[in-house]
Design goal:
By secondary structure, the protein is mainly α. It has one domain. It is about 80% helix and about 0% strand. The radius of gyration is 22 Å and the shape is globular.
């Protein structure tokens, strides 16, 4: 819980980040919401190609910290920084060049207002994607070390900064709802007369995100080089070490593939939903952001469990690693039952907050059905995430990848296609497919966990010769865990 609660709060801040963007963009109308709904699957897909390697950083840092290999902690942290930032530059180039093609594949109609806005938004994000990578990498390394509080504070700073920037960069000094909320309409008119700044529209949300994330990334890197957060990297740690790079690739590549396949699955799902119309896409975009809020406890417990499993396996405490997974699964099951009831009962008024304009009623109705159908399966997805987090912490990223691919590409997409196209159920059929995949995925992951074949440490070569008594005495002190 000490590890997971700050992660949950960080994820809550992340959702606030996304919902603030959705709220301000939503005031432009349903078309603007559709724009970012088409963009984000593409952005997520390209981010996943490189960000999966931050999982290797978490695993290697946590297991070396559990094994008391402090020099190795600093080394693998520096190597993760070098590898991830280098990869992000390649992703930025590819994403910028391929944006129009990818947006078309998602289902946007070339030449339409939504398509043009989506391409502009996507390209803007890719111009600064390495800044986002730096922030994600800082979170991953500190999480592996056992410090989940510092990233939470940095995320809070980013949310506040983004909240300030969003309305100004989207609306400028014209029709800016923020001035109306605080009763400063006259000041808005004066500033517009002085500057003529009318904002960047939807693109302004992307610019605000990059500025806020970039500032957080710079602060995070400064903390890593200063040693104030326990990990202390030097310029020498950034010099490529082929052996460590190979280890990062061996652990990170399956996780990168997993996240990429998941992102591609979301992209394919968005393209399927686009067949049902732009209102369904807008509803799906809003529903996904609301789902992020619901799954905060699952994400936090999964990442906290990953660190606990990694440090315990590094310290040769296998049974303790197993107990952490079981306890986390029990906690998340109880928490998500409560959230499922709330999502089901208040689906319509919740969705209504995030969309305005002439087409709002249709989007609200479809979005409410999304929450009502998927809500009862929240606890299954929560347990699935916790167990998958355990596999990542142990270094079994191949198992995690296989389960995620099974969830999306076997249990979800084929069923969604059958219900949407073959049975002509529209967007409702896709919602039922998502619910089915949540239940089936949890069942398979639970069965694999009980096999117990995931408990070998990936750093055994560094800990040979250390007796179990030594590990019991010093490998997992309160300092390492907290």
């Amino acid at each position: 819980m000490l590890l997971s609660v700050p992660i949950v709060l960080s994820q809550l801040l992340q959702v606030a980040y996304n919902l603030i963007d959705t709220y301000w963009v939503g005031q432009l109308g349903a078309a603007a919401v559709s724009t970012i709904s088409f963009s984000w699957p593409v952005i997520f897909l390209m981010i996943s190609l490189a960000s999966g390697f931050t999982v290797a950083g978490t695993t290697l840092v946590s297991q070396n910290e559990g094994a008391n290999n402090h020099a190795a902690v600093n080394h693998v942290a520096g190597q993760t920084v070098a590898f991830t930032l280098g990869g992000s530059l390649l992703v930025a180039s590819l994403g910028y060049l391929l944006a129009p093609t990818l947006i078309t594949l998602v289902g946007a109609t070339p030449g339409s207002e939504v398509f043009t806005g989506a391409v502009t938004y996507t390209r803007t994000m890719f111009l600064g994607i390495y800044l986002m990578f730096g922030f994600f990498m800082f979170q991953a390394l500190l999480r592996g070390y056992g410090d989940t509080v510092t990233p939470m504070y940095l995320m809070a700073f980013g949310v506040v900064f983004n909240t300030i920037l969003d309305p100004f960069l989207i609306y400028g000094f014209t029709n800016n709802a923020l001035f109306g909320l605080v009763g400063l309409g006259g000041l808005e008119e004066a500033l517009f007369s002085l500057t003529g700044f009318a904002g960047f529209g939807v693109q302004g949300a992307a610019i605000a995100s990059l500025i806020a994330r970039g500032t957080g990334a710079i602060i995070g890197l400064a903390l890593l080089f200063s040693g104030w957060v326990g990990i202390e990297i030097t310029l020498a740690d950034l010099y490529p070490d082929l052996d460590t790079f190979r280890q990062i690739v061996r652990i990170g590549a399956p996780s990168s593939a997993e996240q990429s396949m998941r992102a591609l699955g979301v992209t394919a799902l968005t393209a399927l939903i686009a067949i049902a119309g732009p209102d369904a896409v807008a509803a799906f975009g809003i529903g996904n952001r609301l789902n992020s809020l619901v799954f905060l406890p699952a994400i936090g417990l999964a990442q906290g469990t990953s660190t606990a499993v990694g440090q315990n396996l590094g310290a040769a405490k296998i049974e303790r690693a197993k107990r952490s997974v079981l306890l986390s699964s029990e906690v998340i099951a109880v928490a998500l039952v409560v959230l499922s009831v709330l999502a089901f009962l208040f689906a319509r008024p919740i969705v209504a907050i995030f969309v305005a304009g002439p087409q709002a009623e249709t989007v609200i109705e479809v979005g409410a059905s999304y929450l009502r159908i998927i809500g009862p399966t929240f606890l299954f997805l929560g347990v699935f995430r916790v167990i998958n987090g355990a596999f990542k912490g142990s270094g079994n990223t191949g198992t995690s990848m296989g389960l995620s691919i099974l969830s999306l590409w076997v249990f979800r997409l084929p069923v969604a296609y059958a219900l949407l196209i073959r049975l002509d159920m529209g967007a409702i059929g896709v919602w039922y497919a998502i619910a089915f995949s949540n239940v089936a995925s949890a069942a398979v992951a639970g069965a694999w966990f009980l096999r117990g074949t995931w408990t070998e440490s990936v750093i055994e070569e560094h800990t040979e010769g250390r007796g179990s008594a030594e590990c019991e005495a010093d490998c997992l002190s309160d300092h390492h865990m907290n």
